[in-house]
Amino acid sequence: MASSSPNKLTTTNHLRHVESMASFPSGAGKIPHLNAVILGEDLASEENDLVYPSHDFSRQALVPSPHKYLEMYKRSIEDPAGFWSDIALTEFYWKQRWGDQVYSENLDVNKGKIKIEWFKGGITNICYNCIDRNIDAGLGDKIALYWESNEPGFDAHLTYSQLLHQVCQLANYLKSIGVRKGDAVVVYLPMLLELPITMLACARIGAVHSVVFAGFSSESLAQRIVDCKPKVVITCNAVKRGPKTIHLKDIVDTALIESAKNGVSIDVCLTYENQSAMERESTKWQEGRDMWWQDVVPKYPTTCEVEWVDAEDPLFLLYTSGSTGKPKGVLHTTGGYMVYTATTFKYAFDYKESDIYWCTADCGWITGHSYVTYGPMLNGATVVVYEGAPNHPDSGRCWDIVDKYKVTIFYTAPTLVRSLMRDGDEYVTRYSRKSLRVLGSVGEPINPSAWRWFFNLVGGSRCPISDTWWQTETGGFMITPLPGAWPQKPGSATFPFFGVQPVIVDEKGNEIDGECSGYLCVKGSWPGAFRTLYGDHERYETTYFRPFPGYYFTGDGCSRDKDGYHWLTGRVDDVINVSGHRIGTAEVESALVSHPQCAEAAVVGVEHEVKGQGIYAFVTIVEGVCYSEELRKSLILAVRNQIGAFAAPDKIHWAPSLPKTRSGKIMRRILRKIASRQLDELGDTSTLAEPGVVDQLIELADR
């Protein structure tokens, strides 16, 4: 069992992989690298593999140089107890301090039960730290949340003081219907202000929120209700997403019928009337169970006592759905998650008090938990919440919102970047975007060509990109650039965050030094790590810790280059084995998208009688370009030239668009079924933004 004493031997070995970056200067001085540009001075071209921060940006940055990063990183690895307790005690409120041991861990299944604990015995409350502490610091009149409707021209905002009042009213209502510390609350809401309000209200009284993305089907929602057995379900009657109206209450009604059949009945369904989408008179209603939010919540007092909780008490459940089997209920606890999300937000975005921050993610995903609600508000930030589709009424909506609220930090997914890139530069250039100073990317590796478009066009070549790698399970950023600290390489997640020890191992679990490729694992725990899978600790151990005992196994492949930069290559189950060559799907996709006429690509593996597996590529081409045999050959040649003949796609499948969830995630499970012609096994397509895309792809299968 490891405790808070550092392991000097492994620490020394690990630091070798980050110390290589000490040879890079900060923005000041001459650049010792031919293929480089300085932030704000030039555009990044395909020849530029290093983008340096400018002297002005580095000078004002929280981490202004490689030297400062190394100093902080070294301490975080050699003295994690001291590093994290200093941050926890100086930047957060604790009703009671923890004991002598800052953390306790065992990551080796061969040495007993997997256990991770941080600040155990410390008493705190994350809602208090998000709101009350900021009001006490004089931020009561600062805007906490700007809300932008799906329809242009409709908006709202809340100051931190107003937010506290609304959170307390809902918290008091929840207490009145019997919700107590440790009880689960299922939340099925779109991106209304009521979503972060609900999360914070649950946290205030010690209840465990389980937010379900309001795009999941009734069956998926019912599964989650049956698993966590909530005291109440909170939803709204409907939402408009682009031009479409989605009847959320109908989905909840069907889910509650299904959950009741499985022995879990819900007594209260609190429903917010979203008038812009649907009048209450048109909403189906079950008397005695269903309650209108507007009829009950505003009647409760605007003050509510805080339920003080242990750092290791549960904060939320978030279910991740695999392509098969029961969803996994990822459980995050309070104290370590609070400290980690706030600290990663602060440093990875170089946060300043004057920043206006917009993350396009939905709170139904971990990004919305950590970097819409908790991380930003723990720093007293002003956050933009957008209800609608990023291309409604047209593909300039994001930049319209950026200009309207003077957004300074913009955090989004590569899928959205590529989609907007496909729609044309004119939707970007008609807006100023001058307020932007930091960009961010989340969800999957961003291919270099999309990175350059994001950097050159959206950011005007003056904004560093925080290309973050992390997972639902990690709670917060694990490998990420720190703006101003060191040069970036387009497409690389760069170096580990403080306290994180990424290692690359071979198939036998041996750590590989230097320039290499392999399986990405993490050595040692970090405060934001998830503690278990709800009700299934055995699955937690089997999935994440048994593959490589002594390490957390991420499930991702990774390469480390000669300079120590990390390049994520996608899920290892997204690795295609062609004639003995292991090829990451992300690598092939990046090569395809580098073609000037390819807007987006998704690659899957299919059975091949000779090679074992073949490469099947779904390709969306640039607007105005026609499908042709010449283009097909040109795309294949692009992959051959960039990776090698062994990686050439066996099939190019023309795709007007790709099947994506409303959060922008490509549904590769569906693509695999189409590629292998298993059309009777497509499964649930209800979470797709455009379900009709599937039929289009099937029709184009043989073109």
From TrEMBL:
<dbReference type="GO" id="GO:0003987">
    <property type="term" value="F:acetate-CoA ligase activity"/>
</dbReference>
<dbReference type="GO" id="GO:0016208">
    <property type="term" value="F:AMP binding"/>
</dbReference>
<feature type="domain" description="AMP-binding enzyme C-terminal">
    <location>
        <begin position="587"/>
        <end position="665"/>
    </location>
</feature>
<dbReference type="InterPro" id="IPR011904">
    <property type="entry name" value="Ac_CoA_lig"/>
</dbReference>
<dbReference type="InterPro" id="IPR042099">
    <property type="entry name" value="ANL_N_sf"/>
</dbReference>
<feature type="domain" description="AMP-dependent synthetase/ligase">
    <location>
        <begin position="140"/>
        <end position="525"/>
    </location>
</feature>
<dbReference type="InterPro" id="IPR032387">
    <property type="entry name" value="ACAS_N"/>
</dbReference>
<keyword id="KW-0067">ATP-binding</keyword>
<dbReference type="InterPro" id="IPR000873">
    <property type="entry name" value="AMP-dep_synth/lig_dom"/>
</dbReference>
<dbReference type="Pfam" id="PF00501">
    <property type="entry name" value="AMP-binding"/>
</dbReference>
<dbReference type="InterPro" id="IPR045851">
    <property type="entry name" value="AMP-bd_C_sf"/>
</dbReference>
<dbReference type="GO" id="GO:0005524">
    <property type="term" value="F:ATP binding"/>
</dbReference>
<dbReference type="Pfam" id="PF16177">
    <property type="entry name" value="ACAS_N"/>
</dbReference>
<dbReference type="GO" id="GO:0019427">
    <property type="term" value="P:acetyl-CoA biosynthetic process from acetate"/>
</dbReference>
<dbReference type="InterPro" id="IPR020845">
    <property type="entry name" value="AMP-binding_CS"/>
</dbReference>
<dbReference type="Pfam" id="PF13193">
    <property type="entry name" value="AMP-binding_C"/>
</dbReference>
<keyword id="KW-0436">Ligase</keyword>
<comment type="similarity">
    <text>Belongs to the ATP-dependent AMP-binding enzyme family.</text>
</comment>
<keyword id="KW-0547">Nucleotide-binding</keyword>
<dbReference type="InterPro" id="IPR025110">
    <property type="entry name" value="AMP-bd_C"/>
</dbReference>
<protein>
    <recommendedName>
        <fullName>Acetyl-coenzyme A synthetase</fullName>
        <ecNumber>6.2.1.1</ecNumber>
    </recommendedName>
</protein>
<feature type="domain" description="Acetyl-coenzyme A synthetase N-terminal">
    <location>
        <begin position="69"/>
        <end position="130"/>
    </location>
</feature>
